[in-house]
Design brief:
Length: 295
Amino acid sequence: TAYRRQRQMCIRDSLEAHQESRKGERIGVVKYRSARAQRLKRWQKTTPLNAYWLDRKFLWGAVEAFAPKASGVLLDVGGSETPYRSMFEPYVTHYVGMEYPPAILDKQPEMWDLLYSVNHLVNLLGDGRRLPILTDSVDTVLCTEVLEHVHDPHVLMAEMARVLKPGGTLLVTVPFIQPLHELPSDYYRFTPSSMYRFAEDAGLEVESVEPRGNFASAMGSMLSQWLIRSVGARRRQSDGSVILSRWRSVLLLPFTAMIQIGFLLASKVTNDETVCHGYSVVATKGKPPAQKPSA
């Protein structure tokens, strides 16, 4: 259709401008794997053999708990490949994934040669400083592990509040303790007090700010990641990720698994939440007061 062609042209224009501005720089660190290797990697991510398993476990658990709170039209801000789409689709009428073009380019530059695939992954391209969405038009906004990557989190919070309908729900996750990642665009870590302030300054009413995990699970995650990054890595990349040593990383797999399982068990019998993986925030946009009928 004409709309589809126009959209593809806009995508190409924005990407060409971005690529031109970054000539000579290293862009993107994600590499394609064979189908078999991809399946193996997906399986490993869901097990303690993945050094980031505890982080992933608590994040996915938090997002899963969000799903029943969603309704109507959902906007996933910074959703990249929209990994949580299947969780929310039973509860919403439309799931719209939005990403900032340079962010996707950095994660997987090759995908821009495959516009057809991109159109299936991302529904909308836009900038969080001015979301390309009408005011009061969205029932639910989802924003997972994105605020730490924007220059002005309060601006993005205000924009997400703007596009929400009165009575709409904002669902946000943010990190508290986590290694630097997706450099150079990693700016912040958050506390409950900061999230209350961001939400209230945006005119939202906070329903809950819940920690993901506790001191024990967070320490298990950090120890596991330290082991794989410091002992199992061959070198560090420009975005903060590491290239693993083929043999050392494999030998460390049982140790990362035992560490994470042990600290997960410890987290179930301890309750110190002064350190955790991050926080899950639920906030709503208040409905305007009903107008009194004229006399």
